[in-house]
Specification:
about 280 residues, four-stranded antiparallel sheet, alpha+beta, elongated, 7 strands
């Protein structure tokens, strides 16, 4: 993240020590001719502030990138006051953050992004989890740099109608001995449940899934309806994902048995498996 040649601030300060006044500094260093004294003073002061911010931004980037993991995940950038600046996802968090903080990106960096000073991250086990976690965090935290959009809608996405139904998707977890059960409904409701592949958690987790599909759920108007993201992913990169139709099971114990068999299968996540 180095720079070529002396920084603008260093040039300004060096030439000021040589005896140049603000008007001369603006003309020689900033390339602006004929600026009146007051405007010249403001231009020099502004340039020094911007360069100081650039240095702080560069130092923050170096520290953040040194600490970031080289793993897939979702990350949150915050300013010095703890306000959320940006939420993003990446296959390699460290590499993505290095791109954000590269020196050549400074001139195009938004003012809010330039205030980023700390970062948090969450490892994920699959692309679908990253998509859902990112959208959930953007909706909840309202970061200043992210473009704020309404909740995803089915009618704005090219999704085959046959895919839009109650379904449980089984995707990898960041924990090697576990899987993520992603349950979605056409209403937009969704839930994600991490469960161990040896089936020890399934009695409790299947009850939660059954209630999600067939019980009376409390209203959660504040929760973003992100199921369209999962359906869209299924229509594209997630076509080979193993899935279970809870209605086909008919009863909770049958669903539990189906999930147990799929989770035990060593071929899971290497190919799509059909439920028993």
């Amino acid at each position: 993240m180095g720079s070529s040649g002396p920084l603008l601030r260093d040039k300004l300060l060096a030439r000021r020590r040589d005896g140049l006044d603000d008007r001369q500094l603006v003309e020689e260093v900033l390339g602006i001719r004929g600026a009146p004294p007051e405007l010249a003073r403001k231009l020099v002061a502004q340039a020094l502030v911007v360069e100081d911010r650039r240095d702080a931004w560069r130092r923050a980037g170096e520290r953040i990138c040194a600490e970031a993991p080289s793993t897939p995940g979702v990350y949150i950038l915050k300013d010095e006051a703890g306000r959320v600046v940006y939420v993003g996802k990446a296959i390699n968090i460290r590499r993505r953050l290095r791109a954000h903080f590269s020196g050549r990106r400074w001139r195009a960096t938004k003012a809010e992004f330039a205030r980023a000073s700390t970062a948090e991250w969450m490892a994920v086990g699959s692309e679908l989890e990253a998509l859902l976690r990112e959208a959930q965090l953007i909706a909840e935290l309202q970061p200043t740099v992210n473009v704020q959009t309404a909740a995803p809608a089915l009618d704005t996405r090219a999704i085959p109608g046959a895919l839009v139904k109650d379904v449980i998707l089984i995707v990898p977890s960041v924990e090697e001995d576990s899987a993520e059960l992603v349950a979605v409904r056409p209403s937009g409701a969704w839930m994600m449940q991490r469960t161990r592949r040896n089936g020890v958690d399934l009695p409790v987790h299947t009850k939660r899934l059954w209630k999600f599909f067939f019980g009376v759920l409390p209203p959660r108007s504040a929760a973003p309806a992100l199921a369209p993201i999962a359906y869209s992913w299924l229509a594209g990169r997630g076509q080979a994902t193993t899935r279970v139709d809870p209605h086909a099971a008919g009863r909770e114990p049958v669903l539990r048995g189906q999930l147990a068999a799929l989770l035990r299968d060593e071929r899971l996540f290497h190919e799509r498996l059909e439920q028993c």
